[in-house]
Amino acid sequence: MEPTVVLTIGGSDSSGGSGLQADLRTLAALRMHGASVVTAVVARNTREIADVYPQPTTVVTAQLASVLEDLPVAAVKTGILPTPETAVAIAARMRTGALPNLVVDPVLTVAAAGARRGLIAAYERILPHVTVLTPNREEASALLGWDVFTPADMAAAAAQLAARGPRCVVITGGDFAAGTEAIDVVWAEGTARMLHSPRISGRNTDGSGATFATAIAARLAAGDDAPAAVSWAKGFVGRAIGDAADWRIGGGTGPIDQFGWSALTLR
Ligand SMILES: Nc1ncnc2c1ncn2[C@@H]1O[C@H](COP(=O)(O)OP(=O)(O)O)[C@@H](O)[C@H]1O
Ligand SMILES: Cc1ncc(COP(=O)(O)OP(=O)(O)O)c(N)n1
User: Fold this and answer.
1) What ligand is nearest to the CA atom of residue 51?
2) Does the predicted interface ipTM exceed a cut of 0.85?
3) Could you tell me which CDD domains the record lists for this protein (predicted)?
């Protein structure tokens, strides 16, 4: 049987923990073929982001055109769109309907210097085409212009973002510092629902957001509806964080275990 193809559009993470590297690991773990469009090269390790090098928009659109003219893409996930120009060019492809089952992780913290305000405006052109939007609380705050903090705020924010076009919005709460639960809020079909899972206290969570969004895209490609895909992805990312809890890869926040390697005894 041929593997399903999922396309990820985002940044290369030199530490391997997040970005395209996490997306492609997630797809391989889920036995899907990952195609990738590189929007930025990020020089970083587990401790810090040293620099972000946006790729020229023409380089991004050439990769996208080449993939789309040949591969049977069943779902798409976006991560870093580093400049407003690149985001607007990708939005134009979305408008043609060429990017099915579209999951957008609106990564704003790793945008090119000075690009944030223009990017927030560019996301307005993307939102109408989105199947599932996965901002964390900070990204939701930036997109909406008010502070999203409590679970009640997350529900209100998800509804406001959904009114701008996405069929489903999940506001992730991985950054809640306290508490025993990792709480996300999902808005779909006119109602908000809280998703709870045990909060794992390990040192490694790099790539959680990327893995979560990519797993949603993979499940959409496999035929799940959006709420089912989101619930499944939350279980998947929780297991991957838990399995990597004791890893020591680098001196800071390390990668997570999409493959379940920690369960293997081979060394
Ligand atoms: N320590 C943790 N324990 C369990 N789940 C977590 C933890 N950190 C993040 N998650 C889950 O990982 C997914 C990604 O969330 P989050 O870390 O908020 O994204 P981002 O990396 O974009 O900020 C969410 O489903 C969230 O609940
Ligand atoms: C190349 C690259 N670096 C960092 C990120 C950060 O993504 P974010 O969703 O903020 O967090 P995690 O996925 O690391 O939990 C990225 N998307 N790409």
Assistant:
1) 2
2) yes
3) HMPP_kinase
Name the residue among 65, 36, 57 with its Cα closest to residue 115. 57
Q: What order of strands is seen across the sheet that includes strand 102-104?
A: 49-54, 33-44, 5-13, 73-78, 102-104, 132-133, 168-171, 181-188, 191-198
How far does the centroid of ligand 1 lie from the alpha carbon of residue 46, in Å? 17
In a domain, 55, yes or no: yes
Q: Is the pLDDT of residue 177 over 70?
A: no
For ligand 2, say whether the CB of 24 is within 6 Å of any of its atoms: no
Give the torsion sign (CA, 123, 128, 130, 134). positive
**pLDDT tens, 135-145?**
999 999 999 99
The CATH code of the domain that includes 158 is 3.40.1190.20
Residue 265 counted as domain residue: no
Ligand 1: centre distance to CA 67 (Å): 30
Does the residue 262 lie in any domain? no
* Ligand 1 centroid from CA 133, angstroms: 15
Binding site membership of 79 for ligand 2 (Cβ less than 6 Å): yes
Of all atoms in ligand 1, which is nearest to the CA of residue 184?
27
